[in-house]
């Protein structure tokens, strides 16, 4: 679960345990490491495992409080409401990877990404979103709040995405569109790599 500068929490590797035992082990581990500088934090709940979103919020808050630079969150069940606001105001974060899984069919309450009013990620350089539905407004909010963002990869995440504007963006990859209608306009004068595919 832990190594120098990194913490990896993957419930799939401990699914033979009761969840309460798993959560207790994780909480005790984090308590022991309360005075560390954290480089990478990985949190993974794949498949159909039940997720205690209170624990997820607590563990992500721990990572942010310890100056995490790379945050990798992979959840098998989509819930746009669980992400703590602190993710989007983390001054140390350089790379954010979110994979949320698919929302339940026709579950309108869980479509799209719920963003806080304030986004400020001054160190963010790389953003990877997979199955996290973002539209033009969502992406604009993230780009405007991330002055150093250079690399964006959207996989099965572009929902009604019509316009991407950034003076810093160098790489943009979009794999999988849905809800397209008006085409895509890109205004990024420093873009050196662009890849777009309809399939995920």
Automatic annotation (TrEMBL):
SUPFAM superfamilies: RNI-like. Pfam families: LRR_At5g56370. Residues 57-176 form the F-box/LRR-repeat protein 15/At3g58940/PEG3-like LRR domain. InterPro entries: FBL13/AtMIF1-like, LRR_dom_sf, LRR_FXL15/At3g58940/PEG3-like. PANTHER family: F-BOX/RNI SUPERFAMILY PROTEIN-RELATED, F-BOX_RNI_FBD-LIKE DOMAIN PROTEIN. This is F-box/LRR-repeat protein 15/At3g58940/PEG3-like LRR domain-containing protein. It comes from the Eukaryota.
